[in-house]
Amino acid sequence: MVKKTKLLLHVLVWLIFISYEIIYVKFTIGLTTDLFHVAIFYCLNIGLFYVNAHVILDYAFFRTSRPYMISIGLILLEISAYLLLKLSIDYLIADPKTPLILQVKKDQKYALTNIWRGIYFIGFSIAYWSMRYMLKFKERNHQIETEQLKTLAKNLELENKFMSVENAYLQNQISPHLLFNTLNFIYSTVRLQSKDAGEGVSRLSDLMRYSLVSADDTRLVSLAEEVVQLENLVELCRMRFGELCFLRFRKNGKLAGIRIIPLILITLVENMMKHGDL
Known about the structure:
With 278 residues, this protein is mainly alpha-helical. It is built from eight helices and two strands.
């Protein structure tokens, strides 16, 4: 759809330009010519316009290391080719009664007139190419700026997320430290008054420390470490309920060298104590 719109725009501009030139020549000089000849010569000039813009200049500036020197040389060759084509067309459509050589000799300014006409359309072509290139350059810069803004926004979003995670981590660190410091204080105070109460606080502190550290670690833990904390959990249950708790914990075999998912046995025993009839 966009290409079709551009094509129609180009056709419209050329129609306006050609109409302007024909009307201008007719009303200023009073010269009229055959429409077929007009169509042929304008096709030649329009071809020169687009070849210069899309072939010569694109090649010189986008595929060579010396764009200005090469573009000048190619434009000179282009003008020479244009003159040969113009001469060939004039020869084909010339009046048989008057040979082309006689017409050229009669018109002393034939070469200069056609060179000027070629330069005229090449000048328009250079202006068109420059405007087209500037628009593309502006669009590319806009795209680059848009991508940079998107990247900056993503970086800011990641930075904000990182800060949020870091703050959450610090908050999680503060809470355990406060808890363990408080438990240590309670243990130091209570153990002088009651040996059982002090032992209970000590076991609870060890169990909670293991639970917090293991919860942050996704790796496997030693089965022996898990069993030590199971003993703490069972002993806390006995200390809490005394003779009302009927629970016996036994372990057989070698525990060293075996690794399991953290807290899996502690969670099982804790649920058994919570929901079981002990």
